[in-house]
Amino acid sequence: MRFDEAYSGNVFIGTNSDFPESRVVLYGMPMDWTVSYRPGSRFGPARIREVSIGLEEYSAYLDRELHEVKYFDAGDIPLPFGNPQRSLDIIEDFVTKLLAEDKFPLGMGGEHLVSWPVMKAMAAKYKDLAIIHMDAHTDLREHYEGEPLSHSTPIRKIAELIGPENVFSFGIRSGMKEEFEWAKNAGMHISKFEVLEPLKEILPKLAGRPVYVTIDIDVLDPAHAPGTGTVDAGGITSKELLASIHEIARSEINVVGADLVEVAPIYDQSEQTANTASKLIREMLLGFVK
Hints:
Elements: E1 24-29, H1 44-51, E2 58-59, E3 64-65, E4 71-76, H2 84-100, E5 104-109, H3 115-125, E6 130-134, H4 154-162, E7 167-172, H5 177-186, E8 189-192, H6 196-202, E9 210-216, H7 238-249, E10 254-261, H8 272-288
Parallel strand pairs: 1-4, 1-5, 5-10, 6-7, 6-9, 7-8, 9-10
Antiparallel strand pairs: 2-3
């Protein structure tokens, strides 16, 4: 996939730059080959783009407009259906090339495993990388039913690569007992159930560091985001998630990339999940890119 090949269908609202002049590259990772429950997240990036037409380009939260950020929508990365390893290799190569061009990668999934090759590429460039992870699930398994390439494994993989003490998870309310025990013994930070208040405590400790932010839409309660593959009751509100994004935006950390994953439009006829995701992408664009 060439960088100058824009998405052949819809693009995210306000896309205002060609690749060479862009600061941010928005891209989709349409993969759901390893999900353990309900497939469909491969359609997430396209639908997020389509519903973005209903957004204003101005954020009342951040007092910024999309024209203030030069960004290019590169479309969805073409991935070979049913081939997880090859798909992950393609994603890693794509993001590595973006980073070589000093672009800010903003990805849309797709299942959460797609974040692994992105974080791996980020870690290769930023030696002091930290991860902020918002999710209903720990994603700390070594394998799922014997398969190491699973949407339940990406945080374990990045923790083992950069050190568990550099990974900070928030909103977690589901996982195996062994996952929580591993995190505790390894020195990894997990905030159960809540995001905003524990995030406020952690951000000053990450001041000045390069940070990658990965958000699984199922950190939201199913009442706010039913359109996802693995819904889990007891999540946060969309208001709290927006406030958490803004807290990161106003902090002293150096956000170097981000993604939003696990939107599965087929399970939400109201389209509130896709619309919420679209707004979250707008706020990440305006908040994370200074």
